[in-house]
Amino acid sequence: MSVLEIILAIFIPPLAVALRFGLSSAFWINLLLTLLGGLPGIIHAFYVLTKK
């Protein structure tokens, strides 16, 4: 995980996921979680970016 991905995962989680995986299901889940609340989107972004 690069420094850019970490910064984006904190401030714009869907963009960080989209840069790594494109418009996949992980992106749409992250977008939904970010819209429902900022913290779930950030947690999901870090999970997805470190998992794969």
UniProtKB/TrEMBL annotation:
Q: Which InterPro entries match?
A: PMP3
Keywords from the named record: Membrane, Transmembrane, Transmembrane helix
Spans traversing the lipid bilayer: 28-49
Pull one GO CC term from this UniProt entry. membrane
- Compartments in which it is found: Membrane
Keyword Transmembrane on entry: yes
Question: Which Pfam families does the record match to this protein?
Answer: Pmp3 (PF01679)
Entry superkingdom: Bacteria
Annotated family: Belongs to the UPF0057 (PMP3) family.
* Protein's name in the database: YqaE/Pmp3 family membrane protein
Q: Which species?
A: Abyssalbus ytuae
